[in-house]
Sequence to fold (178 residues):
Amino acid sequence: MLKETVLEQGEVCDNGGMSSVSMVSDCEICPFLVDQTANDMEVLLQTDRWVVVLDKNQDYLGKSFVTLREHRETLSDLDDIDWSDLHEVVRLLEGAIKRAFGADVVNWECLMNNAVMRRQPTHVHWKVYPRYVGGVSFDGEVFPDDKWPRHREGGKHIVDDTLFARISGKLKDELYGD
Ligand SMILES: [Zn+2]
Fold:
């Protein structure tokens, strides 16, 4: 089992993306990872193990997904490198969000309940919700946080392509020190 895992990781490194070997059929997330690159506008950060994608639904300004690039179904399945890599992602992303938009705190959530509800395999990912006491404005758009300190379940704030690009660009500037 260990040998198999090492081989899969080697293949991921070779092609710079998901290997077809580690894709799991019926997983809703695996197909999104194929052909995804750090140059995609919605991709904020990509490490060997994780990819950070800005959510089109900006119900919390800077809301993102942090997804394991290889299919693993539970947090218990993560290895030491996954965790240390995640620690670096948390440090970089939280810092960028706070500097870019002044978030007061960043909430991390790992549920994966929808996949279970649909009887599909779970694929480890985190939802990242920056929170702003009193709300926040960016580029003339207001992002209220009216349920603070509770969670705004199912909130929708779809931003247009121009604003999405500006939010993504601002976070990338902070991440890459522009
Ligand atoms: Zn998957």
In short: Residues 1-21 have pLDDT under 50 and may be disordered. The longest strand covers residues 125-131. The two ends are 43 Å apart (CA to CA).
